[in-house]
Design goal:
Blueprint (H helix, E strand, L loop, with lengths): L8 H16 L8 H8 L4 H4 L1 H13 L3 H7 L2 H21 L3 H29 L5 H29 L3 H21 L2 E3 L9 H24 L4 H23 L13 H31 L4 H29 L1 H19 L8 H16 L2 H10 L6 H40 L4 H31 L11 H7 L1 E3 L4
Antiparallel strand pairs: 1-2
Pfam families: MFS_1
Protein name: DHA2 family efflux MFS transporter permease subunit
Membrane topology: Multi-pass membrane protein
Length: about 500
């Protein structure tokens, strides 16, 4: 009988710290954008939005290549490089004299954080056996969900009382801690470290494909679907993506392995995750508009309103992981998606008079539902893959989250804007009080978009009933070939 290898908890703890800081940074600037616009004299909101879009764009371009790096280099090398880039970007952002420098700094940050999530997820998958993986991935979910959720709350408080630059100076010393631990304490944990060659054409097509789609759909929400740059980049992105996929299917060592979709449960988990991501963005986009523009609530109070939801997700993530180990993903996903569908429908019934407490409770219930779905579904899908395919599975999941988020945002913003315009025209034609037309029209636009999002979430609920537990388990030989600890070598 082979003795079970103890998971490398020290390695995991260091990676957790780095991933938490990097992911926490993603949503840190959302509420700070108006202050940044004021400081740099920017009048166009779509220009400032590039601080968010650019970050997402770099992630979308680099994440597909993460499978190559994880297979080619040790976790220690990747972690130190990723955290060094993140720290450098954070320092430059804090002292940025112009908006252009700040944008470049955000992209340097993103180039580091793009490698953190796939790296951590691969370590977790390789370090824990299938029967204990749910609890481990539940802790991983704590990082993935809670870190970006608490960003707006902290950002709202800082922006109201201090300069937006303080946000970066708070993150900087915190980021230096895992970097130092990585340099002096992190052991290598190798994943099939082979002499792989990087297919340059695949990298170019991936960049054009994912980059074009991410940019096009992100810009569509601001500039409209008839903008020539939006249409052009989406077409270039779509054509490049098709060429990229066809090329990967022909290569023996693809940059991103699309053949993993021959595993039905992984394909199903991807479909549910995409639909859920699009539905999730309805609250992420519409709530700040509703709370701050229509209700007139301050940025800090807006962040506080969303904090209980983040805390519930944080508490539930490890619990959900243990429930997944015991009962599987199907029952959790079905219950969780039912909660999401019902709560999303109630969001479509909000009014200008809805109370702060009611909105907070409803948002928290919705987050409870999402916490029961995300990690169990993703983990169940990855569990069906052979261990050698884990880097590709995690890269695929993270890439699809970025792309579906961009597409979902653009579609929902478009739906809201069109409905708002139509309602405003109807109210104006009926002789309604001009002072209240825009607020009432925007309220109707938000409600209608949440109603559409209810049906989108309903698709994920239906798909959840087709989830099955994986049947195959990795062999001991496969485990040894993928996961082994090595001493630190300089």
């Amino acid at each position: 009988m082979t003795e079970e290898k103890k998971p490398p908890y020290g390695v995991i703890a260091i990676l957790f710290a780095g991933a938490f800081v990097a992911i926490f940074n993603q949503t840190l600037l959302n509420i700070a954008l108006p202050s940044i616009m004021l400081d740099f004299g920017i009048s166009n909101p779509s220009t400032a939005q590039w601080l968010i879009t650019g970050y997402m764009l770099v992630n979308g371009i680099l994440i597909p290549a993460s499978a190559y790096f994880i297979q080619r280099y040790s976790n220690r090398s990747i972690f130190i490089l990723a955290m060094s880039l993140f720290v450098l970007g954070t320092l430059i952002a804090g002292i940025a004299p112009t908006f252009g420098v700040l944008l470049a700094a955000r992209m340097i940050q993103a180039s580091g954080s793009a490698l953190m999530m796939p790296l951590l997820m691969n370590v977790m998958l390789a370090a824990f056996p299938v029967e204990k993986r749910g609890a481990a991935m539940g802790l991983f979910g704590l990082v993935m969900i809670v870190a970006p959720a608490i960003g707006p709350t902290l950002s709202g408080f800082i922006v109201e009382h201090y300069s937006w630059r303080v946000l970066f100076f708070i993150v900087l010393p915190i980021a230096l801690i895992p970097l130092g631990l990585g340099i002096f304490k992190l052991n290598n944990l190798t994943f099939q470290n082979r002499e792989l060659s990087l297919d340059k054409m695949s990298l170019i097509l991936s960049t054009l494909g994912f980059g074009g789609i991410l940019y096009g759909f992100s810009a569509a929400g601001q500039d409209g679907w008839d903008d020539s740059l939006v249409v052009g980049t989406i077409i270039i992105g779509a054509v490049s993506l098709v060429m990229f996929i066809l090329r990967q299917l022909k290569l023996s060592e693809p940059l991103l392995e699309f053949r993993i979709y021959k595993y039905p449960m992984f394909a199903l988990s991807s479909a549910i995750s995409i639909v859920l991501s699009i539905s999730m963005f309805s609250a992420m986009i519409l709530m700040p508009i509703y709370i701050q523009t229509i209700k007139g609530i301050s940025p800090f109070e807006s962040g506080l309103l969303m904090l209980p939801g983040a805390l519930v997700m944080g508490i539930m993530s490890p619990i959900t992981g243990r429930l997944f180990d015991k009962y599987g993903a199907k029952i959790l996903a079905a219950i969780g998606m039912t909660i999401v569908v019902i709560s999303t429908y109630y969001f479509s019934q909000l009014s200008i008079a809805s109370s702060y407490v009611f909105i907070m409770v409803l948002y928290t219930i919705r987050m409870l539902g999402i916490s029961m779905v995300m990690m169990p579904v993703m983990t169940n899908g990855l569990n069906t893959l052979p261990m050698r395919a884990y880097p590709h599975g995690t890269a695929m999941n993270n890439t699809l989250q970025q792309v579906s988020g961009a597409i979902g945002s653009a579609l929902l913003i478009t739906i809201m804007n069109k409905r708002t315009t139509a309602t405003a025209n109807e109210l104006a034609a009926s002789g309604a009080d001009p002072a209240g037309i825009m607020n009432n029209a925007m309220m109707d636009g938000i409600n209608f978009t949440f109603f559409v999002s209810t049906f989108i979430a309903g698709v994920a609920l239906l798909l959840a009933f087709f989830i099955r537990k994986p049947e195959s388990q990795p062999t001991e030989e496969e485990k040894k070939s993928v996961y082994k600890q090595e001493p630190v070598t300089e």
